[in-house]
Specification:
CATH class of the largest domain: Mainly Beta
InterPro entries: DHU1 (IPR046377), WD40/YVTN_repeat-like_dom_sf (IPR015943), WD40_repeat_dom_sf (IPR036322), WD40_rpt (IPR001680)
Structural class: mainly beta
Helix content: under 10%
Strand order of the largest sheet: 22-23-24-25-29
Distance between the termini: 45 Å
Largest sheet: 5 strands, antiparallel
Number of domains: 2
Keywords: WD repeat
Biased composition (Polar residues): 62-71
Protein name: Anaphase-promoting complex subunit 4 WD40 domain-containing protein
CATH superfamily of the largest domain: YVTN repeat-like/Quinoprotein amine dehydrogenase
Number of helices: 4
CATH topology of the largest domain: Methylamine Dehydrogenase, Chain H
Strand content: 35-45%
Number of strands: 29
Biased composition (Pro residues): 1-10
Length: 457
């Protein structure tokens, strides 16, 4: 009989662009090749009606049978496969976060280990933990020195019930969610069990109040929960012992201008990155002398924030007015520059995060009401989600955003309004669910209040 290898090349390779046995458009084939996909037996990369951005790059059946993912990272295979089967909704579902707290949120973070939990801090210094899937309030607490805006939030990595919160006045506290009061309890009461393995006063949601870091803007805990860093409207960084409450050190003059956001690596307890409005992002290692960074990468405009990819292979920087870049975390070389349209405003502060592991990037700016969704591998802008709230849509803007830590193609947006009479709110967006289909217990924003623009290749 014929050798087994004879029929393999025709099934998985093609001699030329027009010699494929799988009917598909030329644009789809080019995009597949750009993304590194096998040309055989793939789903269409463009929707049937011709709108670009509707489909999701898929892996081949051969990869599916062998269990090997051909997507950008191992984190993104499940999301890619899900998108391949279902396709992105033409009108994604937008669900306002419904809960019993009625404060104005200023910052929020998903719990990476209990993904149904979300913490948000308010303009009045309230820290509120909610189950964003049910709308129930898990607990809430008041920060010291309130009213002051909560600007820094970070969950612990080894204990999913603890988090730190920092205010713009510089106050930093470690909270235990198990000891936060439920919404129907007065502020002097408590709930829950004793904390395990942590020092501090019993029956209080705040375990430690750390030394203040003046004009704080960012806090972040290392992956082993040994210590955390704080930055703010200065070019210094404060280092604290998370478990004892002591200030360990202040690193002076790490940048020429103030350090807006800093982040520890996800898998190294000593490596962290800083972003500054001096247009530089810098990589540091606490094991090395702090007078010189491991490397420096520069942007054209001031940097608003920086974050690591989940696998720590990349560093994502966001500078003023939609300047988003992805660097190799190993040496800072530029890997991808995302071509997002600039508005010309020097106050259009941009924030970007990874979604579906390291496969996609979501980006929003504080003078726009649009979230851009890009392929992290190619930099291609796949889709825009434009949110419209109460009144004129031009008064709404994206203050912050985060991708869901486990659910694919889901993210939340903190929407704020230019009008002082309008309250900021958090909205959850699911790209796989349609706004036309109402799920029980999940209110939907009407399609006419949300626009989606698909951008093709």
């Amino acid at each position: 009989g014929a050798p087994r290898g004879v029929p393999v090349p025709p099934r998985h390779f093609e001699e030329s662009m027009d010699a494929t046995t799988c009917p598909r458009g030329l644009v789809g084939a080019l995009r597949a090749r750009e993304l590194g996909r096998s040309p055989a037996k793939r789903s269409r990369l463009l929707p049937p009606h011709g709108g670009a951005g509707q489909g999701v790059p898929a892996r081949s059946d051969t990869a599916a049978s062998s269990g090997s993912a051909l997507s950008f990272s191992p984190h993104g295979f499940r999301g890619t496969a899900t998108g391949m089967r279902r396709g992105l909704a033409a009108w994604p579902a937008v669900s306002p976060l419904k809960h019993e707290c009625h404060q104005r949120p200023r910052q929020f973070e998903y719990n990476p280990h209990r993904s149904e939990w979300m913490v948000y801090g308010t303009l009045n210094g309230e820290v509120c933990v909610v189950n964003h899937e049910t709308g129930n309030v898990v607990g809430q607490a008041q920060s010291v020195g309130a009213p002051h805006s909560i600007l820094g939030l970070c969950w612990c990595n080894t204990d999913s019930s603890k988090l730190i919160a920092g205010t713009d006045s510089g106050a930093i506290q470690l909270f235990d969610v198990d000891k936060m009061r439920p919404p129907d309890c007065p502020s002097g009461t408590s709930r829950g069990r004793q904390p395990r393995g942590w020092a501090g006063g019993a029956r209080r949601p705040s375990i430690y109040t750390y030394d203040a870091f003046e004009q704080l803007t960012s806090v972040h805990i290392n992956c082993t929960d040994d210590y955390f860093l704080a930055s703010g409207y200065s070019n210094h960084v404060g280092m604290y012992d998370l478990r004892t409450g002591k200030t360990l050190q202040t690193f002076k003059d790490l940048h020429r201008e103030h350090i807006n956001v800093l982040k520890f690596a996800n898998h190294s307890p000593t490596v962290f990155a800083t972003s500054s409005f001096d247009r530089d992002i810098k990589m540091w290692d606490l094991r090395q002398p702090m007078h010189k960074p491991l490397y420096t990468a520069s942007s054209d405009r001031g940097n608003v924030m920086v974050c690591f990819s989940p696998d720590d292979h990349f560093l994502l920087s966001s500078a003023v007015d939609n300047e988003v870049r992805q660097h190799l975390a190993s040496d800072g070389r530029l890997h991808t520059k995302f071509n997002l349209d600039a508005t010309g405003s020097m106050h259009n502060y941009t924030r970007s995060y990874y979604m579906n592991g390291s496969d996609y990037v979501i980006s929003g700016s504080c003078e726009e009401n649009t979230v851009h969704i890009c392929c992290a591998r190619t930099g291609r802008r796949l889709r825009d989600v434009t949110l419209e709230g109460r009144g004129m849509h031009s008064s709404l803007y994206v203050q912050s955003l985060r991708a869901h830590p486990t659910a694919d193609f889901e993210f939340s947006v903190l929407m704020a309004y230019n009008s002082v009479t309008s309250k900021s709110e958090i909205a959850k967006v699911s790209l796989l669910e349609s706004a036309d289909v109402a799920a029980p217990g999940r209110p939907r924003v009407a399609p006419q209040t949300m626009r989606v623009a698909g951008l093709g290749g």
